[in-house]
Amino acid sequence: ATIALAATASDTDGTVARVEFYAGSTLVATATSAPYTASWSNVAAGSYSVTARAIDNSGATTTSSAAAVTVNAPANVPPAVTLTS
pTM for this structure? Predict the structure, then answer.
């Protein structure tokens, strides 16, 4: 599956340098300019806890609350067959 990720971030005393998107503790994407969006591709079936972490121009960070994401396995579609002889 491919999952669209989006976050809003702002910094009152500087600028947001980047927003990093995590599944658990694994970095899955980074956005360096607003709007802070990214795609997480080739996601296997399962349940994930996704967060966004904003980093400002001075290195300060803040992490969002987690969002639960569930990717279901695709349905098992039967194969096609045609008798030719």
Answer: 0.86
